[in-house]
From TrEMBL:
Record keywords: Membrane, Oxidoreductase, Transmembrane, Transmembrane helix
Alphabetized Gene3D superfamilies for the sequence: Aldehyde oxidase/xanthine dehydrogenase, a/b hammerhead, Aldehyde oxidase/xanthine dehydrogenase, molybdopterin binding domain
Residues that span the membrane, as ranges: 20-39
Provenance organism: Novosphingobium sediminicola
Protein name: Isoquinoline 1-oxidoreductase beta subunit
Entry EC no(s): 1.3.99.16
Length: 736
């Protein structure tokens, strides 16, 4: 499998034994976090770490039988902490409700994504670590059983477990995990453990209350923006209006330094920063700074041209002729078009979009007297950031402690984006002032520096036979992929993220050709929820409907025909139609008298299959989505409640991008610097969402992102049917 990120495999673990035990409670089952403790631990200390195999790196069992679990994945509202507790708890035989979960520090133990790396993204978390986490729980259970066997003086084979207890049925003896934890300290981990038969699952596959909800609901949850340390100063920044510009002069620097609470004023690359005792003072002062911005004199990272506009760039992409690099091909395209009874062609467009997550980025940096560095900031890949911070600070990785708080929403926002995150600025300011510094980007600065999902123009050609059935399809995407955009260079091979959703479609067409024409974007780029699928399934599924229109085919019947022989997807699309009460394309008159239509679309993102139907109407020039029905087949599941919640969340974001969201540039400047100029979907525009989970038994797919890609094309197809013309650009416009 080609993974989009690579991380070091032997980074140090930065959690002290004393600090962890203090948090876990006296007598906890704590075997190290990289610190040898006891004979069994010491013997294996020098061995190369196999990710996800060392129980003490993940679990601590307190005397009160509660469990602390160090999660390799960050919680940002997607429910992964709860899922991890269910998986580990199932094999450990411990109620997931007894778990407290925290983000694990950097370290080789936690690189469990397919045993190679560690990221929270790409809907990898559960599916990539499911087997590993099950084995981890089973191993911990076996260690507790061994400890109980010694304590009770009976063979381990005579012992069984119930949630949180080891039981000897013959004698009636029982001991809690909390009682056994100290004795389990030196128990060797068995080389092989038996896993439960899925038919015996107590928690996997069942609804389980989210572990993070209470703390979030009561205000106790701690995000990066909440972090505090003794002696901390606050900082705010004013960025250059265009990336690549530098500070020429601060005309009123003396006045800014004299403002209330100001500690110091600093010139940073492409920004001015004010450090103060309070954030409000820092913000007021930096916003008052009158800065003369100068154009870059040397090479800089993706400098923004002064004349750039998104409107002109969209037309440029649509008309650009360049080298076509083929990503996927099948059949005889030339013969398909030569023998076609009819053809259809169209160009579709996607827009730049912001991440617009709830929590603005922040970072807290503290240099310590012992030569170490502590940093707190939102991130989706601690090991990646550890390597970058080591380069920036000049410190060895084992001197750097990364703390990863809860994410206040992310959608792909918290990876390493040059000039797109505040941690380098916080690091530099802390070094300069000699005190801890917490830097928060205001919403305006976040919108200015947020790297965007790419823009694309896709040129389609389709060929149909005499019966109106598609026999060939060609899609040429003119774009730059996010991975190559972040790297700021064209890779040796195509960026898979640029074309996913155009490639990998499961419809049985005799001929197809999918290619990319690379055009570098003037903007900085990033991953966005469901990445390339978020726009490419919109392109493909709407053009497929356009081909159905041309051939006089019903869009649902057409898809069924193209899926003949594919039992999994045929069952899935039928499930979506059944969930919706039966297919009716429309237009039709609803009971409330409104004129409505339905659209249908499918997507295959991140190892999961989805089919969505949307019902829409138009009133007072505004599209209203009344209902979205989505069938989702992730192969197998852990928590149906989390899946339903994630589909609802993904539907909301998919609707927001297809109806409203667009990051616009004029004269090289962002047109919107806050939500007043960049509207997102509001609660009154959220439709009823109906979810049906289909477990086909296929290999487990992702959950966090797959619910999004089929929604925009389903809505666009419904609107096009309702208004009688094709809409080929997101956000939808021109339907009146």
């Amino acid at each position: 499998m080609n993974l989009p990120f690579q991380t070091p495999v032997n980074d140090p673990v930065n959690v002290s034994r004393r600090g962890f035990i203090a948090g876990a409670g006296v007598g906890a089952l704590v075997l190290g976090f990289g610190v040898p403790m006891g004979a069994a631990r010491a013997q294996g200390a020098a061995a190369k770490v196999v990710p996800g195999t060392r129980v003490p790196a993940f679990l601590a069992i307190r005397p009160d039988n509660t469990i602390l679990f160090q999660s390799p994945f960050a919680e940002g509202g997607q429910g992964v902490w709860t899922a991890m507790a269910q998986i580990v708890g199932e094999e450990l035989d411990a109620d997931p409700a007894s778990f407290t979960v925290e983000n694990a520090p950097p370290g080789p133990d936690y690189q469990v994504v397919f045993g190679q790396m560690r990221i929270t993204g790409g809907s990898f978390s559960v599916r990539s670590s499911y087997a590993t986490m099950r084995k981890l729980g089973a191993t911990a259970r076996a260690m507790l059983v061994q400890a109980a066997a010694q304590k009770m003086g009976v063979p381990a084979g005579e012992l069984t477990t119930q949630p949180g207890r080891v039981i000897h049925k013959a004698s009636g003896k029982a001991m809690t995990y909390g009682e056994l934890a100290p004795a389990a300290l030196d128990m060797p981990a068995p080389a092989n453990v038996a896993l439960k038969d899925p038919k015996d699952f107590r928690w996997i596959g069942k609804r389980q209350a989210r572990l993070d909800v209470r703390a979030k609901s009561t205000g106790k949850a701690q995000f990066s923006i909440d972090m505090k340390v003794d002696g901390m100063l606050h900082a705010a920044v004013q960025h250059a209006p265009r990336l690549g510009q530098t500070v020429g002069k601060i005309r009123n620097e003396a006045e800014v330094k004299a403002m209330k609470g100001v500690h110091s004023v600093h010139v940073l690359p492409g920004a001015v920063a004010v450090v103060a005792e309070r954030f409000w003072h820092a913000r007021r002062a930096v916003e008052a700074a009158q800065v003369d911005w100068a154009e870059a004199t040397g090479e800089t990272y993706r400098p923004m041209p002064a004349d750039f506009s998104t409107e002109a760039f969209a037309q440029y992409l649509a008309n650009y002729q360049g080298k076509e690099e083929v990503a996927e091909t099948a059949g005889d395209m030339a013969a398909g078009f030569a023998g076609a009874a009819s053809t259809v062609s169209a160009t579709y467009h996607s827009q730049f979009v912001n991440h617009a997550q709830l929590e603005p980025p922040s970072a807290l940096a503290r240099y310590n007297a012992d030569g170490t560095l502590d940093m707190w900031f939102p991130n989706q890949a601690p090991e990646m950031f550890l390597a970058e911070i080591a380069k920036a600070s000049g410190l060895a990785p084992d001197k750097i402690h990364i703390h990863s708080p809860l994410l206040g929403g992310f959608f792909g926002r918290h990876f390493i984006y040059p000039h797109g995150t505040p941690w380098p600025q916080a690091l530099e300011l802390a070094k300069r002032v000699g005190r801890p510094v917490k830097l928060i980007w205001t919403r305006e600065e976040e919108f200015l520096r947020d790297p965007l999902r790419p823009m694309a123009a896709v040129r389609f050609r389709g060929a149909l036979d005499a019966k109106g059935m598609p026999i060939a399809i060609e899609a040429i995407s003119v774009t730059e992929g996010p991975t190559e955009g972040i790297a700021d260079k064209r890779a040796a091979k195509l960026d898979d993220a640029a074309l996913e959703g155009l490639t990998g479609k499961k419809y049985a067409l005799p001929a197809k050709r999918i290619a990319q024409v690379f055009v570098k974007s003037p903007t900085t780029l990033a991953y966005w929820r469901s990445v390339g699928n978020s726009m490419n399934d919109f392109f493909y599924e709407t053009f497929l409907d356009e081909m159905a229109d041309k051939g006089g085919q019903d869009p649902y019947a057409l898809r069924l025909k193209l899926l003949e022989g594919n039992v999994r997807l045929t069952n899935l699309i039928k499930a979506a139609v059944d969930l919706s009460g039966g297919w009716k394309a429309g237009p039709f008159t609803a009971p409330d008298g409104s004129k409505r239509a339905r659209g249908i679309a499918m997507a295959s993102p991140f190892g999961t299959e989805t089919a969505a139907i949307a019902e829409v109407s138009i009133a007072d020039g505004q599209i209203k989505v009344h209902d979205v029905w989505q069938a989702i087949d992730p192969g197998s599941i852990v928590n149906p409640a989390i899946i339903e919640a994630q589909v609802n969340s993904a539907v909301a974001l998919g609707l927001s991008e297809v109806l409203i969201e667009e990051a616009v540039y004029k004269d090289g400047l962002r047109a919107a610097r806050n939500f007043d100029g960049y509207p997102i979907l509001t609660p009154d525009r959220m439709p009823r969402v109906h979810v049906r989970i289909v477990e086909s038994g296929a290999p487990m797919g992702g959950i966090g992102e797959p619910g999004l890609p089929a929604v925009p094309p389903a809505v666009a197809n419904a609107v096009s049917r309702l208004v009688g013309k094709r809409l080929r650009k997101m956000p939808l416009a021109g339907f009146a």
